[in-house]
Design a protein that fits this description.
Residues 25-34 have a biased composition (Basic residues). By secondary structure, the protein is an alpha+beta fold. It is built from three helices and 14 strands. 19% of the residues lie in helices and 25% in strands. The longest helix is centred in the N-terminal third of the chain and has 26 residues, at 4-29. The model is unreliable at 30-55 and 60-84 (pLDDT under 50).
């Protein structure tokens, strides 16, 4: 017999699919607005015409759904908290405290330290979603191994278009220093940051784990730091490469977040 909780999840899933179909139709009509997708974007620098590669760290979805590093995260069916037009969760975390997001994955445990004094709304959102088991069973859908070095996770759909139905503002964007003449800053290995659609204030649930120093524009909220064991686990996934031998796509060594928890340290 189907439980009431399972039925609610099923209804939420069906509603989410309908919403995604409508959004896809709108995206096709408005390609310019959604040109930032999961791909490598060549950015021409002002000085000398040099270029550096920058990932479109976004989920390609509209405001009101989730946005994150990359455009292709895949995870389990959405929970009721993923219905569209949800308000941002009420701020309940201790803004003077440090929190830990523990990701138990099939490839190793990853512990991420988050400072709520610097990114209170981001930390609050992750605690809200983790408490609802939003990430449990989801896949880290995207790995990049050329020019930028990140593993992207956080989409319960595993398509790069999923999200919680609300967005959160950018925070702590100056934490990594001022952008250089190339318009970029260095995201050190071990950094965890939010993905977005390429527009300000469009973070959702998708995030990326930097496993090797990476140059990116300072437009992605850096909100956490991976522990040594977790970084090693991500680097081992990266070493296995991308499916098909490409430099950007699903990791050959599949990564599933079996359980995610956020606790105050």
């Amino acid at each position: 017999m189907v439980s009431s909780d399972q039925r609610r999840r099923q209804l939420a899933r069906e509603k989410y699919v309908r919403q995604q179909q409508r959004r896809e139709e709108k995206r096709r009509k408005d390609k310019r607005r959604n040109t930032v997708v999961a791909a490598v974007l060549a950015v021409v620098l002002a000085s000398g015409g040099a270029v550096y590669a920058s990932v479109a760290l976004s989920d390609g979805s509209e405001k009101g759904s989730d946005n994150t590093a990359g455009d292709t995260p895949t995870t389990p069916a959405p929970s009721p908290s993923q219905e569209s037009d949800n308000p941002e969760p009420k701020l309940t975390v201790d803004q003077k405290a440090t929190y830990e997001m523990a990701l138990r994955t099939n490839t190793g445990d990853i512990a991420i330290t988050m400072d709520a004094s610097k990114t209170p709304r981001t930390v609050n959102s992750f605690k809200h979603l983790a408490d609802k088991k939003y990430f449990d069973g989801s896949k880290c859908h995207r790995l990049t191994t050329q020019n930028i070095y990140v593993l992207q996770c956080g989409d319960p759909q595993g398509t790069g278009t999923g999200g919680p139905g609300y967005t959160i503002p950018d925070e702590n964007l100056d934490a990594l220093g001022k952008a250089g003449s190339d318009g970029a800053v260095t995201f050190p290995a071990g950094t965890v940051a939010m993905a977005n659609t390429g527009q300000p204030g469009t973070g959702g649930s998708q995030f990326f784990l930097v496993y090797k120093d990476t140059k990116l524009p300072p437009t992605y909220t850096p909100f956490g730091k991976i522990d040594a064991a977790g970084l090693k686990a991500v680097q081992e996934v990266a070493a296995a490469g991308v499916e098909g031998g490409a430099g950007d796509g699903a990791p050959k060594k599949a990564v599933t977040i079996e359980k995610a928890t956020v606790t105050k340290k």
